[in-house]
Amino acid sequence: PGAGGATTPLPKAELHLHIEGTLEPELVFACARRNGVQLPFADVEELRRRYVFDDLQSFLDLYYLAMGVLRTERDFTELADAYLARAREQGVRHAEIFFDPQAHVSRGVPLEVVLDGLEASLSTAPERFGISTRLIACFLRDRGPREAMETWEALEPHTARLHGVGLDSAEVGHPPDAFEPVFARARQAGLHLVAHAGEEGPPDYIWQALDVLGVERVDHGIRAIEDPALLARLARDRTPLTVCPLSNVRLRCVPSLAEHRLPELVDAGLLVTINSDDPAYFGGYVDDNFQALKRELGFGDDVLRELAANSFRASFVEEDERARLL
Ligand code: ADE
Ligand code: ZN
């Protein structure tokens, strides 16, 4: 059941989920112990006490530090298994999962270890958890377009194992347009395209993601609310936004959930979806986000059902496959 009580959580797809952001403190310590990694925290409680953030960067510092314990295929397999077990409890039937290749390759973990480890879990997720999955490789925008292209060259032999590419990490000062060449290559390879834009960054970054990168979904996109022409564009094209309410509060992109302008995005006719982003860090998995909207914004069951239905409409699952998920 969801956090709200005894009711069965709505069936849903999760479209904005960083697998590294599902790394719970207990698994951090288990991996550290068996891999001989020294951590600057005494125990699980001390690590969890650090989960208080001022902004996106203060979160990313801890996120990259903690994922340093992931070294072996087994680590990535256990990470994905733990997410899937939680996701099933939250009503997730389908997950389009981000991972950050550069965050692992840059510290000496081969791409094959990451992919093989994740796939060992995900390939049997339908039978074990009733969840179908896709993988989306994200480029770390703060490492620049050159390293993104080198990363693409390393990913290209594995395109059959990927469904899309995305763009994440520190946003402000790293506009999307610089990544046009690498997104063009991914498009030529037949992959879907998404990008984080308008989380902390300005509406102009959302325009660039749409017009320069040609993305099919915008991750976060909440600052579109500041630009009426952009809202009209997103509504006209039914371009999905993957909004992450608890993340936005924890990273102080919005002052509180009660003040989140999500209702205005819905009222403007946008295809809004609800997602958990980095649930181990932000106080809840995806249905916890739904329950928080009910509690803090007074969303009724009809709106929540529509948001859950949007997650399937916004997914990259083919139309004829969708019925199976509901
Ligand atoms: N990487 C993991 N979570 C992220 C977020 N919310 N924004 C940007 N990059 C991220
Ligand atoms: Zn994200």
TrEMBL record:
Top-level lineage group: Bacteria
Site (Important for catalytic activity): residue numbering on this chain: 220
Catalyses which reaction(s): adenine + H2O + H(+) = hypoxanthine + NH4(+)
Listed InterPro entries: A_deaminase_dom (IPR001365), ADE (IPR028892), Ado/ade_deaminase (IPR006330), Metal_Hydrolase (IPR032466)
Cofactor: Zn(2+)
Protein's UniProt keywords contain Plastid: no
Keywords associated with the record: Hydrolase, Metal-binding, Nucleotide metabolism, Zinc
Note accompanying the cofactor annotation: Binds 1 zinc ion per subunit.
Residues that hold substrate according to the record: 278
EC number(s) given by UniProt: 3.5.4.2
Keyword Zinc among UniProt keywords: yes
CDD domains: ADA
Cited NCBIfam families: aden_deam, PRK09358.1-6
Recorded family membership: Belongs to the metallo-dependent hydrolases superfamily. Adenosine and AMP deaminases family. Adenine deaminase type 2 subfamily.
Protein name: Adenine deaminase
